[in-house]
Amino acid sequence: MTSILRFVIGKFVRIATLLIALCLFSFLLLRYSPIDPVQAYVGVDMLNVGPEQRAKIAEYWGLNKPPLEQFASWGYAVLHGNFGTSMIFRRPVLAVIGERFAASVALMGTAWLVSGIAGFTLGVIAGMRRNTWVDHLVKWYCYTLASTPTFWLGLLFLMVFAVWLGWFPVGMGVPAGVLAQNVTLADRLQHLILPALTLSVLGVANVALHTRQKLLDVLQSDYALFARARGETGFTLFWRHGLRNVALPAITLQLASFSELFGGAVLAEQVFSYPGLGQTIVEAGLRGDVPLLLGIAIFSALFVFSGNLLADIFYRLIDPRITEEAAV
Predict the structure, then answer these.
(1) Residue 105, class by beta-carbon neighbours within 10 Å (0-12 exposed, 13-18 middle, 19+ buried)?
(2) How many angstroms separate the CA atoms of 68 and 65, rounded?
(3) Cβ–Cβ < 8 Å for 188, 96
(4) pTM score above 0.70
C-alpha cells in the first residue's frame, strides 16, 4: 500500500508541473496569435466602437497589461479558486465548463462503454477463430477504422442516417425552437445517438486488435495446450483460461484511451454541432477567450490524467508483479 501511495504522490507532482507548462504554453500561443480578443469580443459591432471604447474594454478584461503580469494574475486567481469570467459567455469559467462537461460526459461515457464492450467481443471472436474468414473480417474492419478520420465518419453518418434516411436529427444537442423545460430525455438521447455512434465505431479498433493478440498468446501457452489435451475447446477453454488473462489488459487499455476519446469528441461535437466541451474549446480558441481556454486546458489535462492514473492503479492492484518489477 505504501508503494501505491508513493506512486500516487509522484503522479501528482508530475501533473502539477505538466499543468503549469500546459497553461503557460497555451497562454503564449493565444497571446501571440493574430486573433484580437477585443475585436472578437465586440463582434459585428466593431464599426460602432471607437478607440477609447476599445481601450476601456481592454482595461476591463486586463488585456492592456504586459503578458507576464496577465499570466501571473490569472495564476494567482486560479490558486485561490477563481478561474475568471468567460469573455464569450460572460459567465464564470467553472460554470461554463460544468454545464458543457455534463453534455460531453454523456457522449464520451456512452462511446467509452460501447466501444469497450464491442471491441473486446470482436477481439475474442477473432482470436478464437484465428485464420478464418471471421478473423480476416474483424482485422479488415479494425485496420480500416484505425485509419478513418473522426470528422469524415461523422459527416458520413450525418449524411446517411440524418439527411437521406431521416432516422436521426441533423446535429444539435436538443430540438431547435423548443424551450429547455419542454425538452425530454428521449429528445436528448435521440440527438446523442449519432455522435456517440461515431466515437464508438472508431474506438473499437484498438481494443479489438489488442484483445485478439493477447488471446492468441494465451491459447499458445503451455497451460492452454494442456487444457486442450484434456479435451477443453471453444467457449469452455476461453472461459476457464482466456477470459481473466485478456480482460485485464483490455480494461487497462480502455482506461488509458481517455486522451483519444477526448480528442475524438472535439471533432465529433464540431461535426454534429453538439454543445459539449469540445465545441466550447474551439470557440474559445477562435475568439481569444483566454480564461475559458486555459480553464478547459486544465480540465482536459486532469480528465486524461485521471484515466491514466486509474489504469495504472488498477493494474498495480490486480497484478502486483508490476510493482515488484519497478522496485527491481
Answers:
(1) middle
(2) 8
(3) no
(4) yes
Through-space distance between the first and last CA atoms of the chain, rounded to whole angstroms: 17
Selection from 157, 182, 164, 123 nearest residue 274 by Cα: 157
In one-letter notation, the amino acid at residue 192 is L
Structural contact between residues 148 and 139, judged by C-beta atoms closer than 8 angstroms: no
Give the alpha-carbon dihedral of 196, 197, 201, 206, to 10 degrees. 20
Classify residue 81 as left (phi > 0), alpha (psi -120 to 50) or beta: left
Which three three-digit cell numbers place residue 85? 469570467
Distance CA 268, CA 153 (A): 9
Length of the chain: 328
Residues 257-268: tens digit of each pLDDT: 877 888 888 888
Give every CB contact of residue 42 below 8 A, 6+ residues apart in sequence.
Answer: 49, 54, 57
The grid coordinates listed for 320 are 502486483
- The per-residue b/e assignment along 17-35, b for 16 or more CB within 10 angstroms, e otherwise, is eebeebbeebbeebeeeee
